[in-house]
């Protein structure tokens, strides 16, 4: 439930100027949680025979904190307006904005809510022509591409690289710890850069980086690894560095932006439905990659990295041509961006623009 709810909640609560930074807290805390879990697993792995029970039982701690914290969270102003609780919505908006000058934003919420009430079936409305940009970019494109970056192939090969450096049986835990530490660092970088440089810049710059890393890793493995060849230690060190750089690029771009951008671009009348589709598409491609990766690896071998390099190139083109910049645009005014886009303005009708 946290995947669809938290990014949406943060985007609706945050001021437009720092929405990217606030939304990245979801990615940061998730990565920190995974890193802490890996460190706990690394320690409890040395406790026989009941270490795994301790590791599993400690999961109660964050679950309890989440439950208690959730009891004190207020509803978002958007949700309160949609429920007809206008005074409470205005009170929450004043509190989270820190100013009484919220009339313009509050009026936008009321108008968006009135448009949302006119929609009887939000999922069917999501397929409407005027919502084509959100459907293609937010509901399908970004969540699918987030899983098609090749991150899984990198994480799969990471233990092999660490074993070549002499880590032995603990290579899997060591590699997981290092890659998740890189994700935490990347999430912090993303927090400070999302609202400064913009979403498009982060996605495009990282796509170039990830493409280069995938090509280098694929070509290196083609000539130096496989068919009985042992990976030289020095080369293994280079590949480990490349893996960490790839994880850093992913962790500050396609990782967090795959949740941030969809949470920003849906209008109120399709926001919940759209975010649900985002999660469904993301999990579908996660399962698809998990089922197909090993088979593809056996057939393509090093070519799997070149395949992902091609996908990353296509993803970069997708962002360059189709995704407008949403940095510091109020969430209820993002729909105006489609009117200025060379392609999407053909799909946005007058009703959507003048609502």
Automatic annotation (TrEMBL):
GO terms for molecular function: symporter activity. CDD domains: MFS_STP. Keywords: Membrane, Sugar transport, Symport, Transmembrane, Transmembrane helix, Transport. Gene3D superfamilies: MFS general substrate transporter like domains. InterPro entries: MFS_dom, MFS_STP/MST-like_plant, MFS_sugar_transport-like, MFS_trans_sf, STP/PLT_plant, Sugar/inositol_transpt, Sugar_transporter_CS. The chain crosses the membrane at residues 21-40, 52-73, 135-158, 170-189, 201-223, 235-255, 276-296, 302-323. It comes from the Eukaryota. GO terms for cellular component: membrane. It is a multi-pass membrane protein. It is found in: Membrane. Residues 1-327 form the Major facilitator superfamily (MFS) profile domain. Pfam families: Sugar_tr. Belongs to the major facilitator superfamily. Sugar transporter (TC 2.A.1.1) family. This is Major facilitator superfamily (MFS) profile domain-containing protein. It comes from Eruca vesicaria subsp. sativa (Garden rocket). The lineage of its organism: Eukaryota, Viridiplantae, Streptophyta, Embryophyta, Tracheophyta.
């Amino acid at each position: 439930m946290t995947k669809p709810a938290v990014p949406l909640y943060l985007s609706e609560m945050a001021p437009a100027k720092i929405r990217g930074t606030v939304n990245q807290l979801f990615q940061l805390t998730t990565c920190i949680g995974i890193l802490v879990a890996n460190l706990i697993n690394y320690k409890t792995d040395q406790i026989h025979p009941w270490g795994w029970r301790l590791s599993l039982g400690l999961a109660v701690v964050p679950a309890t904190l989440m439950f208690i914290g959730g009891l004190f969270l207020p509803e978002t102003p958007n949700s309160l307006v949609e429920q007809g609780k206008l005074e409470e919505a205005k009170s929450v908006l004043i509190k989270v904005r820190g100013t009484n000058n919220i009339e313009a934003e509050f009026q936008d919420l009321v108008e968006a809510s009135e448009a949302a009430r006119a929609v009887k079936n939000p999922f069917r409305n999501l397929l409407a022509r005027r919502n084509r940009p959100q459907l293609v970019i937010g509901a399908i494109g970004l969540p699918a591409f987030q899983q098609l970056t090749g991150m899984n192939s990198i994480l799969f090969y990471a233990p092999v690289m660490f074993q070549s450096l002499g880590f032995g049986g603990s290579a899997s835990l060591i590699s997981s710890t290092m890659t998740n530490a890189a994700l935490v660092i990347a999430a912090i970088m993303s927090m400070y850069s999302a609202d400064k440089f913009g979403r498009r810049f982060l996605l495009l710059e990282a796509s170039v980086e990830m493409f280069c890393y995938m090509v280098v890793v694929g070509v290196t493995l083609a000539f130096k690894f496989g068919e009985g060849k042992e990976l030289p230690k020095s080369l293994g060190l280079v590949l480990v560095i490349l893996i960490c750089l790839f994880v850093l690029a992913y962790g500050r771009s396609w990782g967090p932006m795959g949740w941030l951008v969809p949470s920003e671009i849906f209008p109120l009348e399709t926001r919940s439905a759209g975010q649900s589709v985002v999660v469904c598409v993301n999990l579908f491609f996660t399962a698809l990659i998990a089922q197909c990766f090993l088979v593809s690896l056996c057939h393509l071998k090093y070519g799997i990295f070149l395949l992902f390099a091609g996908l990353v190139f296509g993803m970069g083109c997708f962002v360059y041509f189709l995704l407008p910049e949403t940095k510091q645009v109020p969430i209820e005014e993002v729909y105006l961006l489609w009117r200025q886009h060379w392609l999407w303005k053909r799909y946005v009708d007058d009703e959507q623009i003048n609502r």
